[in-house]
Amino acid sequence: MTKSALQIARAAYQPKVPAALKGAVKAVEGAYTQSVADQDEVKKLFPNTYGMPVVTFEKTSSPKAMPAINAGVILSGGQAPGGHNVIAGIFDGLKSLNKDSRLFGFILGPGGLVDHNYMELTADIIDEYRNTGGFDMIGSGRTKLEAKEQFDKGLEILKELDIKALVIIGGDDSNTNACVLAEYYKAIGAGVQVIGCPKTIDGDLKNEQIETSFGFDTACKVYSEVIGNIQRDCNSARKYWHFIKLMGRSASHIALECALQTQPNVCIVSEEVEAKNMSLDDVITQVAEVVAKRAANGDNFGTVLIPEGLVEFIPAMKRLIAELSDFLAHHEDEFKLIKRSEQRNYIISKLTKENSEIYASLPEGVARQLTLDRDPHGNVQVSLIETEKLLAEMVGTRLAEWKKEGKYVGKFAAQVHFFGYEGRCAAPSNYDADYCYSLGYTASCLIASGKTGYMSSVRNTTAPADQWIAGGVPITMMMNMEKRHGEMKPVIQKALVKLDGAPFKTFAAKREGWALTTDYVYPGPIQYFGPTEVCDEPTKTLQLELAK
Fold first, then answer.
1. A Gene Ontology MF term for this entry (predicted)?
2. DSSP letters of 372-399?
3. Which CATH architecture describes the domain 25-215+428-492?
4. Which of 56, 125, 188, 469: disulfide with 459, CB 3.0–4.6 Å?
């Protein structure tokens, strides 16, 4: 593998870890737990792993000799910066317990377990990938582990390799699957522990015990650097409005964090749009008013941040998408026979009056995107909906109407961007490098403590790393029941932006000033070497949430 100078330098970086993980540890059990909602239903589904206590690791002066253990690891779902450091942490943790312990990686995600596709991860391999971005050490995949046949097929290879513990690194769906797998293996006495690790750049896998999901810090810093560059260009040319869509299907954490870092003129927060029951027209009017006010001051330029999942949070659009999805599910073959030029009118004729009118008002391209194939969960593929183009085009139309009426005197020219994949495989920031390594090392401690159905937890991460608190939280504690494919299923509850939380309230208090001024912040690239206040700072979101 050819390496850049930065990669060579980063390979030597030693991640900082909680003081408790430096040497022998003991597991201290705390209070017993219950699920975040639907306690009776969740308990019934997880009789063997429900209600377990939160665990914290503390130093001990009485280390226990541990037998060698074989463990497996899976990277599941979309990439997030720091995944390789989680694996390195697991490896180092297992080797510290017994040098003869072995770690196996399943190739291309959960499918590797089912298909018996694996490789042993040796020190030579691990050392090549320390502090690097991406998931290319073993690859990732989106196979859902939810059927008994899959569990049994996976157990065959686990037994063949004498693997006693499996670590699944993933988001809310992947960790839900980890919880189901842990319950099944415990119920049948398989002798395999299952541990989860919280990963997603979207930032929507968190709670009191899981402060943040790994990768969020790095991805937001990557996006904020580019937003800052665009804002500097914007302030230099002074002739474009930049509409920037950011990843985050189910929550606006990324958009909000990037707004706190760069101070754009507009940042839309999907959760607020839904709470205020705003229509698409309301959103367009809100943005157009900022454009008009800046134009009145002679500023015909600006930036607008847009969360990826916005259209699904606009109540009227949500109703349209629901009816559209239901209709296409039952008439897909008929729809595909319609000529493309006639598909729009066909859809308009089949929807209820309200939804038909909304659909008819959409630009041609966006209307077509709403009819594209659904994802494996039956959802509209929102990343394919060019919301940034939709807003730019409709704001332009609104301003042209106002110009005719004499309400607007400026010039409007738009540029559109979507930042998504650019942030998923970046070299992890020092924060993510440290946090991920600690999560992996903590997972090895959970394995050594005989735990199953737990998620690795590292808290107090706005403090210096030696003050971080390592432990584990039962995955059932995060569960609630939600309707999926027409039936109620246990899933980890997604964490949306809290409108009464400190990050949003801080943004809301400042956005009117940011709208009319050009008070942009240019964060620049991630810094890996230098003063700790430059290199190790966590996200604004985390600092505000923990008030430190």
1. ATP binding
2. SPP-TTS---GGGS-HHHHHHHHHHHHH
3. 3-Layer(aba) Sandwich (3.40)
4. 469
| CA atoms within a 13 Å half-sphere pointing along the CA-CB vector of 420 | 16
Residue with tokens 């309200």: 354
Residues making up the annotated binding site are 78, 172, 200-202, 239-240, 247-249, 308, 421-424
Q: Is 318 helix (H, G, I), strand (E, B) or coil?
A: helix
- Tell me if 25-215+428-492 shares its fold with 219-424+501-542: yes
Amino acid residing at 536: D
Question: Binding site for substrate: which residues?
Answer: 200-202, 239-240, 247-249, 308, 421-424
Residues 28-81 have pLDDT tens digits of: 999 999 999 999 999 999 999 999 999 999 999 888 889 999 999 999 999 999
Q: pLDDT tens for residues 235-263? A: 999 999 999 999 988 899 999 999 999 99
Catalytic residue of the set 92, 173, 202, 432? 202
Which residues face 169 on adjacent strands?
A: 75, 197
Is the separation of the CB atoms in 269 and 252 below 8 Å? yes
CATH number of the domain located at residue range(s) 219-424+501-542 in this protein = 3.40.50.460
Residue 304 CB-half CA count within 13 A: 27
Domain coordinates in residue numbering, the chain? 25-215+428-492, 219-424+501-542
Q: Which residues contribute to the annotated binding site for diphosphate?
A: 78
500 classed as catalytic: no
